[in-house]
Amino acid sequence: MQIEQEVFEAAQSGTVPAPPSPAEGQAQRAQLNQQLGAVLGENAFAQFKQYCTTIPDRTAIDTLQQQDASLSACQSQQLLQILTDARQQIIVQDGMTRDWDSLSPNQAVSIMRQQQALFQQAVGNRVQNILTPDQAKTLETVLSQQRMSP
Known about the structure:
This protein has 150 residues and is mainly α.
């Protein structure tokens, strides 16, 4: 692939190539998605995309476990569902499908901060029945370090 070649050449020469433009990045992602879809098939690719949307939430749970939160398997599963549902709700509610490239950096940061606050509030309200107060506090810290991304 072109990116791999550029990385190899950059490592060889000690220079860093310029990042692709947003349009080039979108085109490269679209091409990669098309190739993955062709290899995996429609159903498996849909499952893969669904799994990818849960990666930030799985990462938060892993981080929580690393900080000795001692989540049970049941708590982990329930928390994953809460995080995923809350993230999806924020995306749908706030229109995260917007054209981020048309926003100024300050506008984008402001919107992401608002989304993060809404996400943390929604999660905080929903975890009270499944996490201990200490676990909930640790989760709040973990989520404050994580960012919503477009």
